[in-house]
Sequence to fold (449 residues):
Amino acid sequence: MKKLIAMTLAVMLAGMALTACGDSSSSSSGGESSSASQSSSSAETESTSGDESQADAGSDLKAPVADGAIDITQGMTENMLTRSILSEGDTTRLANKLKEAKDTSNDKTWNIVFLGDSITAGSSAAGTKYNFVGLFTEWWKQNYNKKTIITNAGIGATNTYFGVHRADRDVLSKDPDIIFIEFINDSGDMFYEKTMESLIRKCLAYKSNPAVVLVEMSLDGGGNALEQHLPPAEKYGVPVLSYHDAIYPEVQAGNISFKSSKGRPGDKDGLSPDGTHPNNCGHAMVAQMIENFIDKVAATADQAGEITPFDESSESLTGDVYKNAHISDTSTKDFEVKDVKGFAEESTPWNFQNGWSAVNAGDTITFEMEFRNLGMLYYKTVNGESGSVEVKVDDGEGVVVSGDFSGGWGDYTADTEIYSSDDTAKHTVTVTVLDGDKTNFEIHGWLVS
Fold:
């Protein structure tokens, strides 16, 4: 499976003056999220995907590009905001949620969740109050409802394959009213149309009838995940906001520089220090386009019909392959360890400590699990200490998984699909550490559906 794991800004210069970029709708001072943002191991590799969006400077645009250079410290222009609403979709759910949020007689606590990768986590912003979730949090509480818990569920170097499996744990457990989904790492692989569709269906089917909105980003060069995400979004009427369609025509016209000259969060001559992650100015623009859409939907919310619960029996584009997706690890009770030699119940990262680790060639562990599809979460490290394992499901051919990421940008939790079937059944899964110069290996969990 193609992975998109980007180069990141590894070190920020000490003593650097970090200033936020102002815009016409986001507070430049920002605000801390009510839920602590998860730190990113930094995202995502450069995409080889080209610019396949409708928003080319030479094509028909929803709004024309500017006549000259744009001051990015002032945020998006009106034409950029117009283009950012790529697909309004069915706003019934969102309109009802906004109408309720504005009702001062309503004493409920609101929950908004942002699910995504390192961009959502805030990579390359100067801090939480400068990333788009932090900026949105401040704006929302000033303009809609102070009694709101906003959760940043962004984890660096992740995609919708991992996202659909952690949706129950990291999103639906918050009883969300609104869910924003952002995954640039899906770019370039149509496998992610399946995972995005299952993620959308899982969210829409939740008992709180949450509104779901996709936030689509862009890489330097125009790479994006719209080809993978638009079909399921259009099928289920999910609104799509496109940072790519907002900014990239201006980049192509020479009105905006995508990459900044010095690669710092506070740079004001470009939107990204590394060609992937927005800097302060870029994050401010992302917040602004979300806020703009919220206000437009709220303006006509009184005319919205009632919310219709999602019909889980409705036809799926791709078979809803990951309908029952979840994570299994030492904190869950949905498997048995049948045999173990050398593996210990421990793993390293603070947010993935419920796994298993081994240090010697020949160490083995056997699980009995029930699934239709199975993926592995495992540790990729740059220290040259991680080796490889062979994973066998029943008596099938073994799949070799390597934890070595020597020379890479940093350690991170990777994922790979090991097994896929049309039927759910009980299986025996055996993991064996292979001989080699290095034999450390960490399993962080299983992606089960």
About this structure: Residues 161 and 195 are 5 Å apart (CA to CA).
